[in-house]
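User: My collaborator sent over this chain with a note saying "see what the structure looks like." That's all I know about it. Can you take a look?
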Amino acid sequence: LTDTNGNTALHVALKNNHQDVANILINLDANVNSQNSKGETPLHLAAMSGNLATARRLIENEASVTAKTKEGKTVLDYVEKGKMSAKVRRLLFELIETKMSTKIITMHEL
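Assistant: Without extra context I'll predict from the sequence alone. Here is the result:
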């Protein structure tokens, strides 16, 4: 089920900074790799808002760290442009880069 912009309930929860709702949806096996009409995944939205705890939960539940939006933006691009403290930005970069370095990335994902 999505809205007119292709957002799932998980996208909407993250856009509205409802971390508790996002966690419930993740626990209920919401699709952590769903993309809205812009190609954004829930991880893109968590990264942009500096939501470290939810980003970690999404990655633990196999959210793609290599997904790109329709404009070709990666999750790391969203961390870079998001509004957060330098510490949270650094921790998000480390979290995502660690996942990328421990995962075999196929040519399709690049």
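A starting point for your reply to your collaborator: The first helix runs from residue 9 to 15.
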